[in-house]
Write a structure and sequence with these properties.
Elements (H helix, E strand, L loop, with lengths): L21 E2 L30 H5 L5 E8 L14 H10 L4 E8 L18 E7 H8 L4 E5 L33 E9 L9 E5 L4 E5 L5 E6 L9 E5 L7 E4 L9 E5 L16 H5 L15 E6 L13 E6 L16 H10 L15 E6 L6 H13 L4 E4 L8 H12 L3 E5 L16 E9 L18 E3 L11 E4 L3 E4 L5 E4 L2 H18 L12 H13 L1 E2 L6 H4 L3 E2 L1 H5 L24
Parallel strand pairs: 6-12, 13-15, 13-16, 14-15, 16-17, 17-18, 18-20
Antiparallel strand pairs: 1-3, 2-4, 2-5, 3-4, 6-9, 7-8, 7-10, 10-11, 18-19, 21-22, 23-24
Helix pairs in contact: 5-8, 6-7
Length: 597
C-alpha cells in the first residue's frame, strides 16, 4: 500500500521533521505566527493552520493509522498525468470526512543554507494525517500522490544478545506457556566499592521471554518471570546508570527464593577517577592521541539527531547550547534533558569540553545542536529536523534514529540536505544483519562498530574472539555492501546523564567517532576548511571520500562488516605517524578502556 523506496547502495535493498525554517502546525492555533529562537518557523514565518486532530489522534481507532501524504514530484509523473499542487491536495484532505489532518511539513528556503540549496527541492510539502487503511490504499492508487506510513523512529534492536551465537528469545505470545504463578527474581546490584546502585537496568533472558526491571534506591530490582523460573534463565545482564562497568552472566544457575547479589566493577578501578582526564581504547585505536592538541572542532556546526542531551553535565554545559525537541511531548526546552541517556553518550564522544577532567570530545569546541526525536518521534519529525539542519547552516548531521522500512520522502529530504552541503552520518545498525534506514541511503555514510580482544571479563559481548590480537567487528554490527567504514563501538567511556561517565556500546557510538573526525577535517583540512570552502555537495562527497580512503583494513575480517576498515585520524588529516595493529598500548593518563580482570 505504501510508497517507499529511494536510491540504494548496491546490494542493500534499501540503502538509498519539524524545525526552525519549517512551517509546521503542531502546537499552534489557526493563523498563529511562529516566533522566537528555537521554535519552528522562527523569525515571523507563517505557519499552517492547525488541522483538527486533538484527542482523536491519541486514541486511534482500529484500522486507522498515521500517514504522510504528498504530491508526486513533476519529474516522477507518468506520461499524461497532470501534477497536483500541494495546497490543492491539502485542501482536499481537510474536506475529506475520512481523513483527520494533523500537521504540514513545508520547508522554508528563505534563509540559511536553504537559500542556496536546489531551487526545486526533491522532497515536496508533506501532510501528516490520520485515516483508515482503506482510505490510505485508495489515495496511494492515485499516480499524482505519494502515500507512506508515518513510521515511528527507534534505535535498531540487537539481533543477538551479546553475540552471534546466542539469539535473543522472541516468543510469539500465542505460543508462550505462561506460569500460573509467575516466577519472581530479586536482584541486589552493588559496586566493587560496596555501594548499592540505584537506577541500574537488570535484564533476565529466559528460554521463553526476557524480563526487565530497574533497581530502586536500595539497589534492588524485582523481576517477574512470566514463562521462566530462575533456574531456566539463560543470561543475566546488568547495566548501571553511570560510574560502573556493565556485566553479563551466562547461565547464572539461580535458586528460587534466594536473593541474587551481583557486584559490578567501578570505573574508578580502571581509571584514576572522574577528577582526572580519561581516555579509552577507541581514541587510541583511531590514533586520535597522536593528533596535535591544537586540532579542535572550532567553527564546525554539528547536529545530533537523537534523544536530546543533558546540558547539566559539566563536560557538555558549554558545548551543547542550542537544540529543539521535535517530538513536542514535554513542553519547552526538553532537548536539554535526556530520558534515555543515548544522546548524552554520543554528544560526549563528539564534543565534550576539554576541562581537564572526565573525557574530551574528538571535536572539542565544535558547536553541537541537540535535535530530539526520541522517544515519540516519527518520520515526519525527521523531515523537519533535516530542514532545521538546512536552514541553520549545519555542517554535519548524525542521524541516530532508524525506521523499519525504506521511505521515499525521507530519501528525498536527505537528498535536499546533501544538496545543501550537509554531511550525513548514521550508524549502520545493531542488527548483526542488514544495514538499517537511513544509513542504507547512498548519500549517508554508514558506520559499523568494532570491538577489541582486550574486552572486560564478563563483557556483554560473548562472541568468540578472533585468533589475532586487536580490533575485530563487534558481534552486533550490521553487515552488507552498504557499510562504508568502521570505528570503535564497544566499551567506550563517555558522558552519562547527571555528572557521571559510562561505558557505551553500539554502532551509534561508532558513528559518533566518525562525526568527531569529520568535524576535525572540516576545521583543519585545506580542501575542506569550513571558514574558506563553501558548503556544497562536492565538499560533502570529498569529505566522505577522504574518510573512507583514510581507513585501514582489519586483518582477517569481512569487508561487508567493516567497509573500508577502521578509520585512522592521522591519515585522514595528513599527519604522518607510524601505524601499529595489535593490543592497545598504554599512554600517560590513559587506560585501555576495559576493567581489569
Amino acid at each position: 500500500m505504501t510508497e517507499q523506496g529511494g536510491g540504494v547502495k548496491p546490494g542493500n535493498g534499501g540503502k538509498g521533521a519539524r524545525s526552525q525554517g519549517t512551517q509546521s502546525t503542531a502546537g499552534k492555533q489557526p493563523g498563529e505566527m511562529a516566533s522566537g529562537v528555537g521554535e519552528p518557523g522562527g523569525q515571523g514565518e507563517q505557519v499552517q493552520p492547525e488541522m483538527s486532530a486533538g484527542a482523536r489522534v491519541r486514541g486511534l481507532r482500529a484500522g486507522w493509522g498515521r500517514y504522510l501524504v504528498a504530491p508526486r514530484p513533476l519529474g516522477l509523473l507518468g506520461g499524461g498525468v497532470p501534477p497536483v499542487e500541494a495546497s490543492a491536495l491539502f485542501a482536499l484532505l481537510e474536506e475529506d470526512p475520512e481523513v483527520e489532518p494533523v500537521a504540514q511539513v513545508r520547508p522554508s528556503r528563505s534563509r540559511g543554507l536553504g537559500a542556496i540549496a536546489e531551487l526545486y527541492p526533491a522532497c515536496p510539502p508533506v501532510a501528516v494525517v490520520v485515516m483508515p487503511e482503506e482510505r490510505a490504499r485508495a489515495l496511494a492508487a492515485n499516480p499524482q500522490v505519494v502515500v507512506e506510513i508515518d513510521q515511528p523512529l527507534s534505535y535498531t534492536p540487537a539481533a543477538a544478545f551479546g553475540g552471534l551465537g546466542m539469539a535473543t528469545p522472541v516468543m510469539d505470545p500465542a505460543l508462550a506457556v505462561p506460569l500460573e504463578e509467575p516466577g519472581r527474581l530479586s536482584v541486589l546490584v552493588k559496586g566493587s566499592d560496596g555501594e548499592r546502585l540505584p537506577g541500574a537496568h537488570v535484564w533476565a533472558v529466559g528460554t521463553g521471554a526476557t524480563s526487565h526491571a530497574i533497581t530502586g534506591s536500595d539497589g534492588q530490582a524485582d523481576l517477574q518471570l512470566a514463562a521462566d523460573t530462575p533456574a531456566t534463565l539463560r543470561a543475566l545482564y546488568i547495566r548501571p546508570a553511570s560510574g560502573y562497568w556493565p556485566l553479563r552472566i551466562d547461565h547464572p544457575h539461580l535458586t528460587h527464593g534466594v536473593e541474587t547479589v551481583v557486584e559490578v566493577q567501578a570505573l574508578a578501578d580502571t581509571f584514576e577517577g572522574p577528577g582526572q582526564a580519561m581516555s579509552g581504547w577507541g581514541a587510541q585505536a583511531m590514533r586520535l592521541h597522536q593528533i596535535p592538541p591544537t586540532y579542535r572542532g572550532h567553527g564546525v556546526k554539528i547536529a545530533l539527531l537523537d534523544s536530546g542531551a543533558d546540558t547539566n553535565h559539566p563536560d557538555l554545559k558549554d558545548t551543547v547550547r542550542t537544540g529543539y525537541d521535535f517530538t513536542r511531548l514535554s513542553g519547552e526546552k526538553t532537548w536539554q534533558s535526556d530520558s534515555t541517556g543515548h544522546g548524552t553518550r554520543c554528544a560526549g564522544i563528539i564534543a565534550a569540553a576539554d576541562n581537564r577532567t572526565g573525557i574530551t570530545g574528538i571535536a572539542a569546541e565544535a558547536e553541537l545542536h541537540a535535535l530530539k526525536l526520541f522517544p515519540g518521534g516519527h518520520i515526519s519529525d525527521l523531515l523537519e529536523a533535516i530542514d532545521y539542519c538546512v536552514t541553520h547552516g549545519i555542517d554535519i548531521a548524525q542521524i541516530n534514529l532508524a525506521y523499519p522500512a525504506p521511505s521515499q520522502l525521507a530519501a528525498w529530504k536527505l537528498l535536499d540536505a546533501h544538496a545543501a552541503g550537509i554531511a550525513l552520518i548514521a550508524p549502520a545498525g545493531d542488527t548483526a544483519g542488514p544495514v538499517t534506514q537511513p544509513a542504507a541511503l547512498p548519500d549517508v555514510l554508514a558506520v559499523g562498530a568494532i570491538a577489541h580482544t582486550a574486552r572486560p571479563a564478563g563483557s556483554s559481548h560473548a562472541a568468540p574472539q578472533p585468533p589475532w590480537p586487536g580490533p575485530y567487528p563487534a558481534p552486533f554490527t550490521a553487515t552488507g555492501p552498504g557499510v562504508d567504514l568502521a570505528a570503535p563501538g564497544t566499551a567506550v567511556i563517555t558522558t552519562a546523564p547527571g555528572d557521571g561517565y559510562i561505558p557505551a556500546d553500539g554502532t551509534t557510538i561508532a558513528a559518533a567517532h566518525i562525526t568527531g573526525l569529520a568535524a576535525l577535517l572540516l576545521a583543519h583540512h585545506d580542501h575542506l576548511r569550513t571558514q574558506t570552502v563553501p558548503r556544497t555537495p562536492a565538499r560533502t562527497s570529498q569529505l566522505h571520500t577522504l574518510l573512507r580512503a583514510a581507513c585501514r583494513p582489519i586483518p582477517g575480517t569481512d569487508p561487508a562488516r567493516t567497509g573500508a576498515g577502521l578509520a585512522d585520524a592521522p591519515t585522514a588529516l595528513g599527519i604522518h605517524t607510524a601505524w601499529q595493529y595489535g593490543p592497545v598500548a598504554a599512554q600517560p593518563h590513559t587506560a585501555t578502556g576495559y576493567p581489569r580482570a
